[in-house]
Amino acid sequence: MSENTAAERKTALSGIQPSGNLTLGNYLGALSNFSDFTNEYNCFYCVVDLHSITVRQVPAELRRRTYEVLALYIACGLDPEKCTLFVQSHVHEHAELSWMLSCFTMFGELSRMTQFKDKSAKHADNINAGLFTYPVLMAADILLYQADVIPIGQDQKQHLELARDIAERFNGVFSPTFTVPEPYIPKVGANIMSLAEPTKKMSKSDTNENAVIRILDDRDTVIRKFRRAVTDSDTSVRYADGKDGIKNLMTIYSCFTGKDYAEIEREFEGKGYGDFKTAVGEVTADGLAPVQKRFSEFMADKAYLETVMRDGAEKASRTARKTVSKVKRKLGFVTL
Ligand code: TYM
């Protein structure tokens, strides 16, 4: 991508919750694509800690993971000099705009969110209002920065569409105020599935560790988990209906090698699933190793991470403040 001058750049923004140890799904669906935008776009990448408390968190773990997600951002090639890396709770405008936007979001719209339905089924003892209004906070994250493009995995598409609807509704009532964002969903890797139940999304909060590859899993663990991955009773490596497990492994292999499905089928013709699973494990471990190495270096330097957080919060606040003032003016709040 060519480098644009700051004035003509569009804005890219995304966020990841520090609510569990990040997975290969988070990496391939979102994180590994973030750095593609840094030359051409004005980028904001956020650790969305406010989002994560919709589900109970252990405070010490939440704090540690917040540092970890930031360290992973940098380890995945996001240069804090070239983009704004920050923690959501450090910029209070997220919560402020979220309230205002909640008055432009319909109860029915939020009721239709599949993530709300899934999470309320999973946490039936804690269906709190935050879980319900979560997509409004996500819309605020995006609209605060007038973001044009949002790199996300498939599971966030519905939330992004709601953010677009909220922006259009507000713009319709008050004249153009918000940029209407577009999703960027990668062609391959936007929906990485569980290794144990390949019809289900790979999720940070899965209690079966064998179902999930963590970005920070060591080489042996990665290979062992892939070797246990659920496949089917057929024996050929083919991208075909009814072979969800194999399709998922082929997707992962494709992401790390750049090979398309036809090439992968040829490469493993006549070979069994065992060989294929080991190969997927190896390319994944090789792909994650440099990220893990850089991650450890950054995690060893908390002072540096705090400087990044502080500078990022300051930069993000400057943009966020402008949007909030504009919104308040349009709504008719008295400004002094
Ligand atoms: P979160 O923290 O659940 O996931 C972070 C990113 O990882 C993607 N992802 C996946 N991609 C492919 N396969 C998977 N199995 C997989 N699992 C997760 C997600 O799509 C996401 O892009 N609500 C968001 C965080 C958020 C946000 C935002 C994102 C808050 N504000 C503003 C973009 C813009 C979430 O819970 O992501």
Write the layout of secondary structure elements.
Layout: E1 10-16, H1 24-34, E2 41-47, H2 49-52, H3 59-75, E3 84-87, H4 93-102, H5 107-111, H6 114-122, H7 129-144, E4 149-151, H8 157-174, E5 182-184, H9 219-227, H10 244-257, H11 261-267, H12 273-299, H13 302-331
Parallel strand pairs: 1-2, 2-3, 4-5
Tryptophanyl-5'AMP binds next to strand 1, helix 1 and helix 7.
| Ligands | tryptophanyl-5'AMP
Work out the helix count.
Answer: 13
CATH class of the largest domain: Alpha Beta
- Radius of gyration (Å): 21 Å
- Major sheet: size, sense and barrel closure? 3 strands, parallel
CATH topology label of the largest domain: Rossmann fold
Sketch the topology as an H/E string, one letter per element.
Answer: EHEHHEHHHHEHEHHHHH
Structure description:
There is one protein chain. This protein has 336 residues and is mainly alpha-helical. The protein is built from 13 helices and five strands. The strands form two sheets. The chain has a three-stranded parallel β-sheet. Helix 9 (219-227) packs antiparallel against helix 12 (273-299). The radius of gyration is 21 Å and the shape is globular. It binds tryptophanyl-5'AMP.
